[in-house]
Amino acid sequence: MKNNYTLLAILAILLAACTNTTPAPTSPTPAGSAVPSVVTPVPTQTAASSTPTPAPGKVLFVAPDPAAVDNYAAIQGGVSKLAAASQLTLESLTSLQPANLLPEVRIVVLLSTPDNLSDLLAASPRVQFVVISQWPSLETHPNLSVITIQPEQAAYLAGFITTIISGDWRSAGLLPDTPAAIQDAFLNGGRYYCGRCIPIHGPIVAFPLAAALPAGSSFASWQNAVTQLQTKILQTVYVDPSISSPDLLKLLADQKLILVGGQSPSQDLRSQWSATVSSDVLTPLIALWPSLVAGTGGKSMVAALLVSDINPDYLTPGKQRLVQDVITGLQTGALGPLSIQ
User: Fold this and answer.
1) 132 and 181 housed in the same domain
2) Distances (CA, A) of 118 to 106, 122, 192, 297, 303
3) Residue 167: its pLDDT value, please?
4) By the 8 A CB rule, do 190 and 178 touch?
5) pLDDT at 68 (0 to 100)
6) pLDDT given for residue 65 in this prediction
């Protein structure tokens, strides 16, 4: 019995020894040493830049009287697309002063020649200017490119078109009285096609005819001029864009005349509209644009002639080919607007 108690005591001692956890030894810290601590790094913040973001580059589009510009909307739309493709913004103005030439201005497109052009060029030599100029052309400058239009050529072509679509040659033009070359060019364009354009039926008179009045003349004055022309019995009339007005066009349309103009017609006139004759300034501007964006100027180009809004019932495909031949002749110099040869 005594041996049993002794055995149980030994087993209890062994079991207690197995369940005790011996603590992990720690290394003693030397006397006088600091206990190291863990430091969490703080992210470094970059100070906000004090340099302002530069304004986007800008194109200024300047037209003192948009209503007087042939195809103004088409030109403005074309320049807007060019500016957007070059990541530039477009601002339209009716006048331009040196104060408008802020640092963000890169290109200025002027649809007429301003009186202060030399001041503008001198004020901002870094800005590229392009001016739509009537013949005779402006001289170029290191920061000035010029697109020249020749209204005499447009009048000559209008005279040609007005004549070839008229039965018995009965055509006329309503034109400004200055410059006088406009009237001469219109008449020469018609005569180029038929010489002395004498109709078969009366009243017998040499066509084409023309009425020329100062720009800004009253509607009553033009109404009287049309009445005088109609004594010769007209079929087709060209209206120069500088004297055109909705009232004048309606007057002609009410008389069942076929119309040729220098600006696109309203929808109610399209059935009597044969064609629009204008100067194409957008094509040369597109050709100049890469140089303008690159900051290089001093180039000169001539605007081509553009025939649009064609009604093939009047200006048939065959006659359109004749018109293209005349355009080519004018552009190459084979035809002169102030000569019928």
Assistant:
1) no
2) 17, 6, 41, 15, 23
3) 85
4) no
5) 73
6) 85
Domain boundary among 131, 150, 169: 150
Instruction: Give start and end residues of each alpha helix (H) in 195-316.
Output: 219-230, 246-254, 282-294
Say whether pTM exceeds 0.90. no
Query: Whole-angstrom Cα distance, residue 234 to residue 265?
Result: 20
User: How is the chain split among helix, strand and coil, in percent rounded to 5?
Assistant: 40, 20, 40
Q: pLDDT tens across 141-151, in order?
A: 999 999 999 99
Number of domains in the chain: 2
If you search the block for the tokens 């180009």, which residue do you land on?
A: 301
Q: Before 136, cis peptide (omega within 30)? A: yes
Using DSSP's 3-state secondary structure scheme, residue 172 falls into strand
Domain end marker among 133, 150, 167: 150
* Extended strands (E) in the chain: 58-62, 89-93, 105-110, 128-134, 144-149, 171-176, 209-213, 236-239, 258-261, 273-280, 300-302, 304-308
DSSP helix/strand/coil, 321: helix
Which is nearest to 283 in space by CA: 336, 333, 331? Answer: 331
Q: What is the pLDDT of residue 190?
A: 95
**pLDDT tens figures, 199-257:** 888 889 999 999 999 988 999 999 999 999 999 999 999 999 989 999 999 999 999 99
Which domain range does residue 193 map to?
152-278+306-332
Query: What is the distance, to the nearest Å, from the Cα of residue 274 to the centroid of all Cα atoms in its chain?
Result: 25
* Token pair for 302: 């001539």
Distance CA 167, CA 200 (A): 10
Is residue 47 a part of any domain in this protein? no
- Domain at 237, CATH number: 3.40.50.2300
* Domain assignment present for 236: yes
320-325 CB contacts, 8 Å cutoff, 24+ apart: 322/160, 322/164, 322/193, 323/157, 323/160, 323/161, 323/164
The answer, yes or no, to whether the previous bond of 36 is cis (omega within 30 of 0) is: no
Query: CA of 193: how far to CAs of 27, 196, 208, 306, in Å?
Result: 117, 9, 11, 19
Clarify whether residues 146 and 157 are in a common domain.
Answer: no
Amino acid at position 267, single letter: Q
**Does residue 12 lie in a domain region?**
no
Is residue 31 situated within a structural domain?
no
